[in-house]
Amino acid sequence: MQSVFSARVFRGACAAWLALAFALPAMPAQATSRIKDLANIEGVRQNQLVGYGLVVGLNGTGDTLNNAPFTKQSLQAMLERMGVKIAPGVTMRTGNVAAVMVTGNLPPFGTQGTRMDVTVSSLGDAKNLQGGTLLVTPLLGADGNVYAVAQGSVAINGFQAEGEAAKIVRGVPTVGRIANGAIIEREIEFALNRLPNVRLSLRNSDFTTAKRIAAAVNDYLGVKTAEPIDPSTVQLSIPPEFKGNVVAFLTEIEQLQVEPDLAAKIIIDERSGIIVMGRDVRVATVAVAQGNLTVTISESPQVSQPNPLSRGRTVVTPNTRVGVTEDGKKLALVKDGVSLQQLVDGLNGLGIGPRDLIGILQAIKAAGAIEADIEVM
To answer: Subunit composition (predicted)?
Structure first.
């Protein structure tokens, strides 16, 4: 009886485990991303603004007027607009003013009266912008029109301290930021809700990804609305039920999940030794060996002195030792069609650093045994 009971319990446990396994959702083989994270909506973008202004209130760390004539001219023009006239020939000596360039990004659909952040950068030989205040500065767009006006106290992340014989600088004290320091004065007209169609601009151009985005949108809506035009663009025709309400249409489709596809690529930064490999990098069967040649030269001169009360001379005898050491690494076999993890493990088996790994990857590419594009930054 005990054996029969144990068998029934075992079968019941197996059935429960199988039911639980089938009830759990299957995990996707590849990671998916939202259309919102893969593409931008054409026309919904920021616009760069730039302006020239003056920062005042510096504690003697501003521009030297003799070395920065544009600061002197700007200061004189500002004072004249305020009704202060400077007699000809008068030398202005002040270190509390600095000429700066003010930059910022006008957000999409920014309305009049809303605020935006700006960055203030020194233009002359100012040493520090700490404690300064930016005077009213118009910010212009690429078309020459004024879209915002900036003013406010400058906040910097760096500092500078110096004495008679030493100086320390932390960060960049000649660049600062004004949070919400500009007020938008002009809007950029863009009637999104009246568009007959909308185009999605892929952040990473790829034919397969563009086709998958179009297929996901068409499957969700049940009609052929999306069409891939090129590897960077997918055109969406606004369905009749969303006419005049493009925002609702975009809200529906931007949450759709799509599996992106990218070309196999290896990015190499030779200056810092950084190597980044894509998941689809594959290599043919190849054997790799790497060795380091080390030459050591040591000098240990010896002094030869004569015996006491002799007529000899003290002579320095050179003694040079030269040694050559070659670290011979064994051949590491990288098999055909291995995964990215296996490729990394095989190359790491050689016990080499990033600098040598860059040379090995380039040599494998030159041999035609790697299926990926190598991009050197």
So the answer is: The basal body constitutes a major portion of the flagellar organelle and consists of four rings (L,P,S, and M) mounted on a central rod.
